[in-house]
């Protein structure tokens, strides 16, 4: 019988050469910085990265097309997966019909973070910001 350490790794495996060391890759990532969001007057700290199961479900929803709507029935379990044990408190704060909107904003926040980590400046949602801070020029109002 193999002796297993508390973290689940066989001590003989720790120094073994491998083709891919995903553990080393994860250690280099910024996996510990939570994603803070404010909902219902409270700051919630979400996992640093989008949970894989939620990412797969989000991709499946995106495959339906840009105009496809997320239903409350779809949004609630997805939010539970990202909010974890605190999801029950969250679902008490957010009205049911707004859960799809919250999910959309959470997914967008993760996407922005992923872009930032890759060194890409995310596109701004603000038109004036996209124009380099130059908003629409106003016509002078004549006093007359």
**Beta strand count:** 2
Terminus-to-terminus distance: 95 Å
Shape: elongated
Percent in helix: 40-55%
The biggest sheet, with number of strands, parallel, antiparallel or mixed sense and barrel status, is: 2 strands, antiparallel
Order of helices and strands: HEEHHHHH
Describe what you observe in this structure.
- Helix 3 (72-83) crosses helix 4 (87-93) and helix 3 (72-83) crosses helix 5.
- Helix content is 42%, strand content 7%.
- It has a two-stranded antiparallel sheet with strand order 1-2.
- It has a domain at 52-119.
- By secondary structure, the protein is mostly helical.
- The chain has helices spanning 22-28, 52-62, 72-83, 87-93, 99-117, 127-130; strands at residues 35-39, 42-46.
- The chain is elongated, with a radius of gyration of 22 Å.
- It is built from 6 helices and 2 strands.
Spell out the key features of this protein.
elongated; mainly alpha; two-stranded antiparallel sheet; 144 residues; single chain; 7% strand
Outline of this structure?
The protein contains six helices and two strands.
Write the layout of secondary structure elements.
Layout: H1 22-28, E1 35-39, E2 42-46, H2 52-62, H3 72-83, H4 87-93, H5 99-117, H6 127-130
Antiparallel strand pairs: 1-2
Helix pairs in contact: 3-4, 3-5
């Amino acid at each position: 019988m193999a002796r297993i350490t508390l973290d689940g790794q066989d001590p003989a495996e720790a120094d073994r050469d491998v083709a891919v060391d995903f553990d080393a890759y994860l250690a280099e990532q910024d996996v510990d910085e939570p994603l803070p969001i404010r909902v219902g007057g409270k700051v919630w700290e979400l996992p640093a990265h989008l949970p894989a199961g939620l990412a797969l479900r989000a991709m499946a929803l995106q495959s339906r097309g840009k105009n496809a709507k997320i239903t409350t029935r779809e949004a609630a379990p997805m939010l539970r997966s990202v909010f974890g044990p605190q999801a029950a408190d969250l679902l008490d704060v957010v009205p049911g019909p707004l859960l799809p909107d919250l999910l959309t904003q959470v997914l967008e926040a993760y996407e922005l973070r992923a872009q930032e980590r890759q060194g890409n400046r995310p596109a701004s949602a603000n038109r004036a910001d996209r124009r380099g801070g130059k908003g629409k020029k106003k016509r002078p109002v004549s006093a007359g």
